[in-house]
Amino acid sequence: MNIVLLLAHSIEEYDQLRLLSGLGYNVFSIGGYIDPAHPHDTKRPALPDVPYHPELHAAVDAMGTPDNLRFAKERIPDAVLDWADTIICHHYEHTWLVPQWDRLRSKRVIWRTVGQSVAGNEQMMAPLRDDGLQIVRYSPKERNIPGYAGEDALIRFYKDPDEWHGWTGESAQVLNITQQLRQRDPYTNWAFWEAATQGLHRVPAGPGSEEIGGTGEVSLPVMKQLLRQLRCYLYTGTQPASYTLGLIEAMMTGIPTVSIGPSHMTIFPYGPLLFEGHEITEAGHDSAAVAGMRLQTLLSDWDAAREMSIAQRAVAIEMFGMAKIGAEWRAFLG
After folding, report:
1. Rounded to a whole number, what is the distance in angstroms from the first to the last CA of the chain?
2. ω into residue 256 within 30 of 0, thus cis?
3. ∠ CA 130-135-17 to the nearest 5 degrees?
4. pTM for the complete prediction?
5. Torsion of Cα atoms, 182 then 118 then 316 then 47, to 10°
6. Are 248 and 157 in contact (CB under 8 A)?
7. Deepest of 71, 185, 205, 275, by most Cβ within 10 A of its Cβ?
8. Could you give all domains of the chain from N- to C-terminal order, each with its CATH number?
């Protein structure tokens, strides 16, 4: 099966290429991994083992626009469309799916939700689903979105336990990894982080975190090392997502993770019904003060931290492990 990916999220692009190619599918991504061995984005490493399709890459380059990758998603080159059996698209449906639907509808087209769907997206997708579009959900909580357009499968994100592991927790500090945590508030719930970690040894990481005393942007190896060495993690979520890849990476690594509670997800009126992070961690708190006390316990009680690490990593492998999610994609794609 030949699969074309139109993905809006570079980390998810890395994950999907790695997973689908490993399952034996022939995959071509119009994005930062258009040449898997030489990615445009440094957030994730090269994928030299993923097959490269120079003729399809050339068809994108031949479009001759200032931004061929963007334009090729908005109008897939004929050569790429002829090659494709299946197209998997992220949430830019208003520019990638709807305007070129008449060209795509003869193919198997899958809308893969990734935590950005709101009522307007659902309403836009409903007519396309009636016309053959398939929808793969990432969270059961999406069913609470008004105008929910339905689903053909529920397949969560995945992480490879062989890649994300090795928590040691020797540094008694609280970690959070979020892009622009302070700058994107309230969508990132920075105020909860600030209140819950006040007075604790804390390390915000990621682009923009240098403005709030953090590390700034770090490389993937450094990010993994932080997840392994620091004692615990405070997950603040993003709105309107049920959960993010960062939560899975933390839990899969084994760092004890405390989550914000759903009552803070109020930017969208159905936000509290959409959020799932507190259920996945089983250590969720609506009160920043209570979350802070839980973190303080983990910082001071090594046995409690180790016990939580073991339990949460087991949950992560059960829910998001590569073997489980790979089997679900294989069953759905055929």
Report:
1. 9
2. no
3. 140
4. 0.95
5. -80
6. yes
7. 275
8. 2-154 (3.40.50), 171-320 (3.40.50.2000)
Residue 213 DSSP label: T
Q: For 4-13, 233-242, 266-275, 320-329, which range has the lowest pLDDT when averaged over its residues?
A: 4-13
Residue whose structure tokens are 């030949």: 2
C-beta separation of 32 from 43 below 8 A: no
Distance CA 315, CA 276 (A): 14
d(CA 312, CA 269): 30
Q: What is the mean pLDDT of the segment spanning 139-158?
A: 97
In single-letter form, the type of residue at position 52 comes to: Y
| pLDDT of 115 | 86
- Write out the two tokens for 119: 């009522």
Assigned token pair, 324? 């489980």
In DSSP notation, 175-197 reads EEE-TTTTTTTTTT-HHHHHHHT
Residues 93 and 52: their CA atoms lie apart, in Å, by 26
Residue % of the chain over a pLDDT of 70: 100
Closest to 127 in 3D by CA, of 160, 79, 153, 94: 94
Give the span between the Cα atoms of 257 and 238, in whole angstroms.
Answer: 16
Which phi-psi region, left, alpha or beta, contains residue 239 (left: φ > 0; alpha: ψ -120 to 50)? Answer: beta
Distance CA(33)–CA(325), nearest Å, equals 21
51 DSSP assignment: P
pLDDT of the residue at 168: 98
Phi, psi (5° rounding) for residue 103? Answer: -80, -25
